[in-house]
Amino acid sequence: MSEEVILKVGGRAFGGWTGVAVEKSMYQMVGSFGLATTDIFPGEAKKWGFSFGDECIVEINGQNLVTGYVEDILIDYDSATHNIQIGGRDKTGDLVDCSFNEEAKEWKGLSIKTIIERLCKPFKIDVVVDDSVSADASAIWPENPFKANEGDVIFELIKRACSMKAILPICYGDGKLTLTRAGKKYKAWDVLEPGRNVLKGSLDGSDKDRFQTYIVKGQGQDSNWMTPTEASSGPIGQAIDNVIKRYRPIITFADGKSDKGLCDTKAKWEKNRHAGESRSLEYEVQGWTQSNGKVWPLNAMIQVKDKILGINSTLLISHLSFSIDERGTITQMKIVDPNTFTVLPVDIKTGSDGFAWMK
User: Fold this and answer.
1) Mean pLDDT throughout 41-67?
2) For the domain bounded by 95-180, which CATH number is listed?
3) Rounded to an integer, what distance in angstroms lies between the CA atom of residue 91 and that of residue 74?
4) 5-90 with 95-180: one CATH topology?
């Protein structure tokens, strides 16, 4: 099947790009693109028909990769060539860059979804709630108000709201912010397997950012349901990573007043996130689409059968990069354990939890 990146701006479609770089990640909440070609209107840049800030869509085979804005335009030339490069990001890029531009707010009695919708509303970004998190997104923020101060980065506020229930804020390339769970919406059609579709593979592991004990502390509050210890010193949650044998504690603090259950949840989240990110796979495959014509999907479960690395597991696509070079169209992907983004009480030592492949 023919593969071509198309840039749509102002009702016009541009193809034939000789340079392509499209990035999508579960960690960044925003996709980006960079496209390059020989300037078909040398000396007459206005004939391209678009400029900075124009809304745009980047797609492959009619499937959106980025829905956002043109942010970068570079035209260069010499006596023999005229080149143009176009770059931009999803609409959610504004959430990553921009600050809360109001006096300090304290929202009380609102759901997590409503808080995030209010943060996104000035940017005209719709919030979509996946079925996998509908109940948690509808949960009311705990007793203490959710605070947004003037100058706070919007993305950091959204992450803070999501962290209470371990919700993932992701942009799938449709210009919207989706609240979801890891691997619940998509499943890759193809299997990754050396000798079949893998051009290059690697395993990357490090324990530098991995700890033995994860401690989360909350603020105390007067309440009949709290123990005397919690009321005076605040609740404490803890999770242990049995893979790390030596003493390596790390302490984080829950946002505002939290009970022990919320602190335990955040501790498990932190443990699984650090453990999952400490081991990852990277693969390169030919083409931008799978055998069914669908673009390789972000946040999708995928079967990996790699005899060279000794892996036969269903894992998670956490990062995608679409590019073109002398080999043709190439997709690079980062693969992690799906438990990286869960709050399950994972016992990594036993290998019964899905982390077994990366011990």
Assistant:
1) 84
2) 3.55.50.10
3) 21
4) no
CA distance 310 to 232: 51
Please work out, in degrees rounded to the nearest 5, the angle formed at the alpha carbon of residue 349 by the alpha carbons of 307 and 136: 95
Q: Measuring CA to CA, which residue among 128, 42, 60 is closest to residue 92?
A: 128
5-90: CATH topology is Phage tail proteins - horseshoe like beta roll fold (2.30.300)
DSSP-derived secondary structure letter, 350: T
Cα angle: 91, vertex 107, 138; to 5 degrees: 70
Q: Which amino acid type is present at position 156?
A: E
Q: Strands 279-286 and 213-219: what pairing?
A: unpaired
N-term to C-term CA, the chain: 39
CATH of domain 213-277: 3.30.1920
DSSP state of 125: -
pLDDT at 349 over 50: no
Largest CA distance in the chain: 80
Tell me how far CA of residue 85 lies from CA of 3, 39, 326, 328, in angstroms.
20, 9, 19, 19
- Residue 34 in tokens: 């960079």
- Residue ranges covered by each domain of the chain: 5-90, 95-180, 186-206+278-358, 213-277
CATH architecture, domain 186-206+278-358: Roll (2.30)
pTM for the whole thing? 0.84
* Residue-wise pLDDT tens digits, 163-188: 778 899 999 999 999 999 988 888 99
Q: Which residue has the higher pLDDT, 305 or 266?
A: 305
